[in-house]
Design goal:
The structure holds 2 protein chains of 2 kinds. By secondary structure, chain A is mainly β. Chain A has strands at residues 5-7, 10-13, 19-24, 31-37, 44-50, 53-57, 65-68, 75-79, 88-95, 105-106, 110-114. The chains are: A mainly beta, B mainly beta.
Chain lengths: 115, 120
């Protein structure tokens, strides 16, 4: 059983460009979460899915951010018209109802740098 | 509003000694879960230990134990017999538990973390 995977691990882009990140959760995990972590801070919640349904979105998720999980398996997070303030580590996590959703397993993250 | 406070930006501990990392929380939810995660320099968040607000006993997982004091709203992590590999950032987190969501609600709320350095 492999862990949560994220692709790419690093992304450097110019301001104004669009970027898309992918997250593959642990198989059989029906909940998937996106967090953002800036330097010196703990992760901040962005959004989460149960199967293909997006159940909650943070106010941090501006109109430039969109997340999808079309088939209830992998998820994508897209940032349009990137800004320098979007530079951060984007973390994905998944969880399973067998643990009462208590334990979230995190992926290695995608580090975004906006120049 | 829910909030996690970790007042120790950095801690040093001698190898093989025990160390306590502080965490206090604020919430109006009657039921909640408390978590500790470890983040090595590689960046991946590693789950360490969980405590439910309704649990009567403090959680333990190997060398990790959670000193839960509900009245004080504190959930300190105790690491016994520190090892060099314990050097990392440690984050305390919380999540409300709402039964109408079939268990835990989604998102974790994290503190700012404590950087632990283990000296040989």
């Amino acid at each position: 059983d492999t862990g949560v995977s994220q692709d790419p691990r690093h992304k450097i882009t110019k301001r104004g460009q669009n970027v898309t990140f992918r997250c593959d959760p642990i198989s059989e995990h029906n909940r998937l979460y996106w967090y953002r972590q800036t330097l010196g801070q703990g992760p901040e919640f962005l959004t989460y899915f149960q199967n293909e349904a997006q159940l909650e979105k943070s106010r941090l998720l501006s109109d430039r951010f969109s997340a999808e999980r079309p088939k209830g398996s992998f998820s994508t997070l897209e940032i349009q018209r990137t800004e320098q303030g979007d530079s951060a580590m984007y973390l994905c996590a998944s969880s399973s109802p067998t643990s009462g959703f208590n334990e979230q397993f995190f992926g290695p993250g995608t580090r975004l740098t906006v120049l | 509003a829910q909030k996690i406070t970790q007042t120790q930006p950095g801690m040093f501990v001698q190898e093989k000694e025990a160390v306590t990392l502080d965490c206090t929380y604020d919430t109006s939810d009657p039921s909640y879960g408390l978590f500790w995660y470890k983040q090595p320099s590689s960046g991946e968040m590693i789950f360490l230990i969980y405590q439910g607000s309704y649990d009567q006993q403090n959680a333990t997982e190997g060398r990790y134990s959670l000193n839960f004091q509900k009245a004080r709203k504190s959930a300190n992590l105790v690491i016994s017999a520190s090892q060099l590999g314990d050097s990392a950032m440690y984050f305390c987190a919380m999540r409300p538990i709402h039964m109408n969501y079939g268990g835990s609600q989604g998102n974790l709320i994290f503190g700012k973390g404590t950087k632990l350095s283990v000296k040989p």
